[in-house]
Design brief:
With 113 residues, the chain is an all-alpha fold. The protein has a domain at 36-112. 90% of the residues lie in helices and 0% in strands. The longest helix has 75 residues, at 38-112. The model has no long low-confidence stretch (mean pLDDT 90). This is DUF3618 domain-containing protein. Keywords: Membrane, Transmembrane, Transmembrane helix. The chain crosses the membrane at residues 86-108.
Length: 113
């Protein structure tokens, strides 16, 4: 019977096994304390989705505002081009046209005399 463990050795092995199980359960309990419940996780996911939806709305509004600003700038650019054309026409009619008329009158009077 020398191969069989003594009762004291069995007791020590059982105590070591018990301590090992207790430390394993304590470790498992500490990890389970950090686990989030499914209800809390679902609520968090809904909150994140609402934030994404809000951000999408804000982005859409910013894009629409940017498009409106671009359209307004294009209209202003077209208006400035039209204004420059009108200014050129005004300069022509106020300065150059009277000079042409004066030259034509001088030419006609010099030809007539």
């Amino acid at each position: 019977m020398p191969d069989e463990p003594t009762p004291w050795e069995l007791h020590r092995s059982m105590e070591a096994l018990r301590r090992s199980l207790e430390s394993g359960f304590a470790s498992l309990n500490s990890r389970l304390d950090r686990v989030v419940s499914s209800e809390l996780f679902h609520a968090y996911q809904q909150a994140v989705q609402r934030q994404f939806d809000d951000h999408e709305g804000e982005l859409a509004a910013l894009k629409a505002e940017r498009e409106a600003d671009k359209k307004e700038r294009d209209q202003e650019k077209t208006q400035r081009a039209n204004d420059r054309r009108l200014i050129g026409l005004a300069v022509f009619t106020s300065i150059i046209a009277p000079l042409v008329i004066l030259l034509v009158q001088l030419w006609l009077t010099s030809k007539g005399s």
